[in-house]
Amino acid sequence: QAQLVESGGGLVQAGDSLRLSCAFSERTFRSYAVGWFRQTPGKEREFVSAISWSGKNRLYAESVKGRFSISRDNPKNVVYLQMNNLIPEDTAVYFCAGGGVAAMTSLAYDYWGQGTQVTVSS
Asked: What is the DSSP letter of 28?
């Protein structure tokens, strides 16, 4: 069964940077789009960013545009989410997901990781 594993979360201060990684277990994921979503307690999962299998199409939520950057390294089976100038509102559990197309809806993704916690203190 295909697996995605997130890493790179942690506790940082406002203004700091983090880079999240999403490693996938199968080479077939090189042909998958990957999305990042985040969720806080009591709220629905929120779209953050997505990248097509080729890397040519990249999507961002308005709240992270100009601060976050998504990229992928297919030979290494990994997708990155570079998060700069973090603010307390970015605090959440971040999930990566694999699907057929890069999209802003969680319904487009079939495979999900377990999540990594990002906490930004003020």
From this structure: G
- pLDDT, residue 1, reads 63
User: Residue 15: how many CB atoms within 10 A of its CB?
Assistant: 11
DSSP code of 53?
T
Beta bridge partners of 35: 50, 97
Q: What is the pLDDT of residues 68-120, one digit of tens each?
A: 999 999 999 999 999 999 999 999 999 999 999 999 999 999 999 999 999 99
**What's the Cα-to-Cα distance from 22 to each of 6, 11, 68, rounded to whole Å?**
4, 18, 15
Distance of CA 116 to the CA centre of its chain: 10
Of 40, 39, 37, 2, which Cα lies nearest the Cα of 23? 2
Pairing of strands 10-13, 116-121: parallel
